[in-house]
Amino acid sequence: MEKRNSPMKTQELLKSMASSFNSLHLNSTNSPVLQLKKTKVPSLVSLCIGVIGKNLEDLIPDLGEIAMCFPANVKMAIAAIARRRKLLTDEVIISLADETWEILDISCSDVSDLGLTKLAEMCRLLRAVDISRCRNITPEGVFQLVQLCPSLETLRCGGCPRSDFTAQRSLGLFRPTLNNVEGDSWEELDTTEITHGGESLRWIVWPKIDPKQLENFSSECPRIKINPLASPFGFNAATIPREALPDINLDDPLVQDIDPSTWASSGVPARIPVQPFSSPDEIPMAEKFRLAFVERDTRLAPKRAKNARQHQRRAEKEWRTTSVEGKVISLTSQASKTLRGWN
């Protein structure tokens, strides 16, 4: 019986296997087991950038000469890796700076006012800049940035007590002010006498801004939106640029094809994390006084320049009306105009 039934059992087994194969769809999108994850093969350029990034600390002394032959996007990618490896300083970012850059992310780095000012002088086309968690940047550096980069639209700041303090002091640079109206005519006023810079600035990302300060600034300067929020229905999402969205890194697209182990290299000992201050009041008093003096001096610089021009114009006018030589020159000029009119 067992020998007679064995062929029948074999046929039944083959039929069941055939039916199971027929019901198996190799191209089915509903079967996660059969789906093979497609991984993008990194380009040769990305592999080379990764090698440079892993050995960046050894290349920093000669980085200026090495980077001269690199295109702008490669320099930006190297700067992004340096920032992630905590190697981004004034020396490194200046060596990599390119005049065609439109985006700059130096967040959580050791770049100072000197480096930021030099970058602003070299990269006049910057549209979006992230200086959040930069402890060495003061309102003086922000002033130079907005003065030298007329295309700046997005500024990301704050994130630590010192950076929050800098952002708070820098808001005055963007408010429209007209402190002195002693000019001879309204035609003599220009944009620099109404604002201190940043005429193209439209977006500021500062997560920890005081609500009262946010309300006051929004009423005084409605053209600049602080911490813009996209509509949950997607109505105004297209109007807000990616650079102004919260919780992003400006340089993420530059390193998306590079192996993350590049900036997880153990070649440089990790820095001891600094415990964040509980409030801006823990900034040393001497440093607060220095920052306040720098901010006041920066804020009054355009007014001093305007007053100097007014004094010069008034002195020239007084000289033409009181001195003999000035009267002679004025009469001669009038006579020349009259003769030209007759001719």
User: Strand order of the main beta sheet, please?
Assistant: 1-2-3-4-5
**Count of strand segments:** 5
Which structural class is indicated by helix and strand composition? mainly alpha
Alpha carbon gap, first and last residue: 136 Å
Q: Compute the CA-based radius of gyration.
A: 32 Å
User: What is the element string, with H for helices and E for strands?
Assistant: HHHHHHEHEHEHEHEHH
Give the secondary structure arrangement, pairings included:
Layout: H1 2-22, H2 44-54, H3 56-59, H4 63-66, H5 72-84, H6 90-96, E1 103-105, H7 113-122, E2 128-130, H8 139-148, E3 154-156, H9 161-170, E4 203-205, H10 211-220, E5 225-226, H11 285-322, H12 324-342
Parallel strand pairs: 1-2, 2-3, 3-4, 4-5
Describe the model.
With 343 residues, this protein is mainly alpha-helical. The protein is built from twelve helices and five strands. The chain has a five-stranded parallel β-sheet. Helix 2 packs across helix 5 (72-84). The protein is elongated and about 125 Å long. It starts with a helix and ends with a helix. Residues 24-37, 189-194 and 266-281 have low confidence and may be disordered.
Quick structural gist:
46% of the residues lie in helices and 4% in strands. With 343 residues, it is mainly alpha-helical.
Task: Quickly list its features.
5-stranded parallel sheet, 46% helix, elongated, 343 residues, 5 strands, RNI-like superfamily protein, LRR_dom_sf, mainly alpha, Leu-rich_rpt_Cys-con_subtyp
